């Protein structure tokens, strides 16, 4: 029950209308990756279906933060990322054309 509530909260934050709230969702996802990687690994497809949208967020701050968080999550989640690798690569590749230096660097 606790895990379900945590996942609901994460989805709510990652899909919020306010960009600050979406940024909180990215921070929470990164925190869960560090503190409870099994929770994220078990629900990787559902979580990353929403997280990939943040990698392409219309708000540059959210987009950059998501890219930076992904760089920190990747070594933690390693093998668990296989089911979502194609969508992640596509989203990250789209950012290589960014004129925003922070996004391009991330």
From TrEMBL:
GO biological process, one term: microtubule cytoskeleton organization
GO cellular component, one term: cytoplasmic microtubule
Gene3D superfamilies in alphabetical order: Leucine-rich Repeat Variant
Protein known as: TGRM2 protein
Entry's Gene Ontology molecular function annotations: microtubule binding
Origin: domain of life: Eukaryota
SUPFAM superfamilies: ARM repeat
Gene name, Swiss-Prot/TrEMBL: Togaram2_1
């Amino acid at each position: 029950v606790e895990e379900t509530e945590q996942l609901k909260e994460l989805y709510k934050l990652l899909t919020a209308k306010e960009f600050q709230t979406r940024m909180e969702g990215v921070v929470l996802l990164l925190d869960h990756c560090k503190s409870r990687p099994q929770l994220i690994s078990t629900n990787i497809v559902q979580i990353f279906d929403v997280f990939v949208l943040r990698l392409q967020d219309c708000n540059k701050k959210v987009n950059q933060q998501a890219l930076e968080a992904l760089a920190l999550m990747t070594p933690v989640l390693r093998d668990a990322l296989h089911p979502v690798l194609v969508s992640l690569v596509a989203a990250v590749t789209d950012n290589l054309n960014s004129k925003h230096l922070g996004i391009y660097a991330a």
